[in-house]
Amino acid sequence: MALVVAAVSDVRYRRIPNWTVLAVMGLFAAWAVANGGAGVLSALEAAGIALLVSIVLYSLKIMGAGDSKLFTAIALFAGMSHLPLLVVATTLSGGAVALVSLATRPRRALAMFTLSGKGDWGRGVPYGVAIAVGGAVIMWGPVAGVAPPFAKPSHRVTASDIRREFSAPEPTPTSAPAATKPQAGR
């Protein structure tokens, strides 16, 4: 529910209420306690990376402060194992939101392309929607059949695993011996 409120608020007011971020963090805390603290270190690592990257994006005026906080809170659920999935889901959703935003304002889009992106474009893209979609992918992933948060691979991938994979000869399909054709007249 908090993700829906954050997304709608970002579309309408270009603000993500702090209580929605706190609600996501509270939900994570409850989840972590219920699971005996499993995966908390991974969650904190992912949130730390998300915070550092989103602060840089905020300082470059690419992302808003509310977007940064929401993405960091959702990264707790992703953990290190699903942080790339969160980034990809959020990025793809953000691209779709940007296309819809431009399609609904064709004059703005034409002006942006004419001026090569220079100028003040006002309210920008409500990226909270994309972050909420990315969060939904992470949080509802187990229901949809995606690996659960904090899933660990069966073993750690090493350089020798990669070398072995790329140096192994290609398997050739085995073919049955050619059937001999009986000769006529014998």
Provide structural commentary.
This protein is mainly alpha-helical and 186 residues long. α1 packs antiparallel against α2, α2 crosses α4 and α3 packs across α4. The longest helix is centred in the middle third of the chain and has 40 residues. The protein has eight helices and no strands. The protein is globular and about 60 Å long.
Strand and helix layout:
Blueprint lengths: L1 H12 L4 H17 L5 H20 L5 H40 L1 H9 L12 H13 L1 H4 L14 H9 L19
Helix pairs in contact: 1-2, 1-6, 2-4, 3-4, 4-6
In short:
The protein is built from eight helices and no strands. It has 186 residues and is mostly helical.
> If helices are DSSP runs of H or I spanning 4 or more residues, what is the number of helices?
8
Supply Rg: 24 Å
Can you give the mean pLDDT? 81
Percent helix: 55-70%
Shape: globular
The low-confidence parts are none
Q: How many strands appear in the DSSP assignment?
A: 0
- The share of residues in extended strands comes to under 5%
Largest sheet: none
Order of helices and strands: HHHHHHHH
Structural class from helices and strands?
mainly alpha
Quote the distance from N terminus to C terminus: 83 Å
List keywords for this structure.
single chain, 186 residues, mainly alpha, globular
